[in-house]
Write a structure and sequence with these properties.
The structure holds two protein chains of two kinds.
Chain A: E1 10-23, E2 26-39, E3 43-47, H1 54-61, E4 69-74, E5 77-78, H2 83-89, E6 90-93, H3 105-115, H4 120-133, H5 149-161, E7 167-171, H6 179-194, E8 198-203, H7 206-212, E9 215-220, E10 223-228, H8 230-237, E11 240-245, H9 250-258, E12 263-268, E13 274-279, H10 282-295, E14 302-306, H11 310-318, H12 322-326
Chain B: H1 3-17, H2 19-39, H3 42-71, H4 76-94, H5 97-106, H6 108-114, H7 119-145, H8 154-182, H9 185-201, H10 214-221, H11 224-236, H12 243-268
Helix pairs in contact in B: 2-7, 3-4, 3-7, 4-7, 4-8, 4-11, 5-8, 7-8, 7-12, 8-9, 8-11, 8-12, 11-12
The chains are: A alpha/beta, B mainly alpha.
The structure holds adenosine-5'-diphosphate and magnesium ion (MG).
Chain lengths: ~325, ~270
């Protein structure tokens, strides 16, 4: 396989991209003004809870639905004016799969190649190459209905890269996969980046965004609430996170810790069982905290000190926990 | 721009220079895939072959005498078989939307819509598969009916097969359009049943409309399928002077053009 030289510069750029759906109950603004910038050659992650607008954004960028408003450039082509050029240059792997259970893996790949304009011979050669890369040779001539979830998902990715696109959109590539198949998929995605393909993936798994993506955007209710590398985002939360189990006394604990000078920010969860606070230096703050709580006659049931995670970033921006929503 | 992108763009300009060639090629690709995938399903073989046999063996003898008087013509089977063939054409095409709904659910349609392939080919490739399979079924049925006493007028049979293909090109595209719009079997099934049953009952396929009261005969006369059935019967009897032939074929052709036009719009709409 001739690996394409990576292209420098912007691979995807959007300005105020919007999409409204009309439904019987009124209209839903699924994507409410998204500005994105994805560099060529990076793995860009779109992290957000279910219903945040990830799929809708991807379907717009892949020419499947037209934006209600806004502009976008994908792989050097204008989304509105040159959709056919966009289609030629991108690959798209839909969220729920993309294969017919009665067709073989090889059959799907050869057809896909031909739909991208390859001759029969070229499509067959490329199908064999993709099957080998994705370790699907043994199952190549079986119906995809007999594949495991991980195999089917790898084949979906194969279908997206048959024509060696400049950018590959992956909508929740690992949702529903067991940990082993997920690790396998991460490897494939990293290999794509090594070959120079830009990858734009969506996920609602924090670990996936953290481990796999060079840069990410957090999306909630159709809007981007934070963007940057995982480390940049976490630094923005600043300092360490202390979580105190309070067993009902959330309000009094909260008002106490808010009065402490070294606490930057504090909040309690919806059930009132946990108080969360952000401090500059956790290891010195915890003893202070314990003493102050003790002096006020408040006994914590637990106390934990953590480095901020992407969930803290999400929590800070939206007031909700992504981990809880995903569960 | 990189070498890779340049190659892709070159391919694209070649394609855009000849969009007709592209549509033709893509139609062939979709046709072939659809035929293979359909025939691979044992269910199709079962219904495709059992259905004509059952009608001929279990229903034909019943009509043999009854129809002899009212229908006229060379033999009861020359009245009965052409009607059955039109029914095969109707059933073989009206329900094809179910298959498209399954493909929508598998994500196959969305995957194809992201490629630069011709949208028209998505429709035409599948519709031609339906036409091909129903003509295959018809040939089988005709062959089976010969021992029962069907007299063959070869030219008439060939034109009837063409008429069946046209019916396929009316019903399959409409069925696909409905499937694209409704996207669920639960909504699609009652709609198709609600259209196919009256069409069938009012067409005189099962019993001669000569037996019907005036109001029923009027309703029957405004059903395009009635004229297709009458045309097929005239063709099977070699009754070339019968005006129903031109009427049936002409009407069906006009409807096929309309149906393909409507459906190709549904397939090329951006947000389907
Ligand atoms: N075709 C549609 N018609 C109506 N509403 C839709 C449609 N597609 C998505 N939505 C709505 O838009 C919002 C965003 O959905 P989606 O983009 O699928 O979110 P995500 O992929 O982040 O889970 C949701 O509220 C969803 O119900
Ligand atoms: Mg989604």
């Amino acid at each position: 396989m001739t690996s394409p030289t990576p292209i420098r510069g912007t691979m995807i750029g959007t300005t105020d991209l919007r999409r409204t759906f009309k439904t019987r109950g009124g209209s839903v603004e699924a994507v409410a003004g998204v500005d994105l910038h994805v560099e060529a050659g990076e793995i860009f992650g779109f992290l957000g809870p279910n219903g945040a607008g990830k799929t809708t954004t991807l379907r717009m960028l892949a020419t499947l639905i037209t934006p209600t408003a806004g502009e976008a450039t994908v792989a050097g082509a204008d989304l509105r004016r040159q959709p056919q050029l966009v289609r030629q240059r991108i690959g798209y792997v839909p969220q729920g799969g993309s294969t017919d259970p009665a067709e073989t893996g090889r059959g799907e790949l050869v057809l896909q190649g031909r739909l991208y304009g390859m001759t029969k011979g070229a499509a067959e050669a490329r199908a064999a190459e993709v099957l080998a890369t994705l370790d699907l040779e043994a199952a190549a001539d079986r119906g995809t209905g007999t594949y495991s979830g991980g195999m089917r998902r790898r084949l979906d990715v194969g279908l997206g890269i048959v024509h060696q696109p400049q950018v590959l959109f992956l909508d929740e590539p690992t949702t529903g996969l067991d940990p082993q198949a997920r690790a396998r998929m991460w490897q494939e995605i990293e290999r794509l980046r090594e070959l120079g393909t830009t990858v734009f993936l969506t996920t609602h798994y924090l670990e996936e965004a953290d481990a796999l993506c060079d840069r990410l955007a957090i999306i909630d209710l159709g809007r981007i609430v934070a963007e940057g590398t995982s480390d940049q985002l976490k630094q923005r939360v600043a300092g360490d996170v202390v979580t105190i189990g309070v067993d009902g006394a959330a309000a009094s604990v909260l008002s106490l810790v808010e009065s402490l000078p070294f606490v930057r920010e504090a909040s309690h969860d919806a059930e009132g069982g946990l108080v969360r606070l952000y401090v500059d230096r956790g290891e010195t703050a915890v003893p202070h905290l314990l003493r102050s709580l003790d002096a006020a006659g408040l006994a914590p049931t637990s106390i934990a000190l953590n480095k901020p995670s992407l969930d803290d970033v999400f929590l800070r921006q939206t007031g909700r926990s992504l981990r809880e929503e995903a569960a | 721009m990189t070498a890779n992108a340049a190659i892709v763009d070159e391919a694209l300009t070649a394609i855009e220079r000849t969009p007709r060639m592209r549509a033709l090629r893509d139609t062939w690709l979709i046709f072939r895939r659809s035929v293979v995938l359909t025939i691979r399903q044992p269910v199709w073989i079962l219904f495709g072959i059992m259905y004509p046999v059952l009608y001929l063996v279990l229903f034909g003898p019943l009509l043999d005498k009854a129809v002899g008087q009212a229908g006229g013509g060379v033999s009861a089977y020359n009245w009965f078989v052409p009607g059955l063939l039109i029914q095969v054409a109707l059933f073989g095409s009206a329900f094809v939307g179910f298959g498209l709904i399954a493909e929508l659910r598998y994500g196959v349609v969305e995957r194809m819509r992201v490629t630069p392939m011709s949208r028209f080919a998505m429709l035409l490739g599948r519709s031609l598969r339906d036409v091909f399979l129903l003509v295959l079924q018809a040939v089988l049925m005709i062959a089976l009916a010969i021992p029962f006493g069907l007299h063959l007028n070869l030219a008439g049979v060939v034109v009837t097969l063409g008429l069946m293909a046209l019916i396929g090109l009316v019903m399959a595209p409409l069925s696909y359009s409905a499937a694209l719009a409704l996207k669920s079997e639960d909504a699609f099934a009652p709609l198709v049943q609600g259209i196919v049953m009256p069409l069938l009952l009012l067409s005189g396929i099962l019993l001669p409309m000569a037996l019907a009261p005036d109001w029923l005969r009027f309703l029957s006369s405004i059903n395009p399928l009635t004229h297709a059935v009458d045309a097929a019967r005239a063709l099977f009897n070699g009754d070339w002077g019968n005006p129903e032939i031109a009427l049936g074929v002409g009407l069906t052709t006009a409807l096929a053009i309309g149906a393909v036009w409507i459906a190709s719009r549904a397939f090329s709409r951006a947000n389907a």
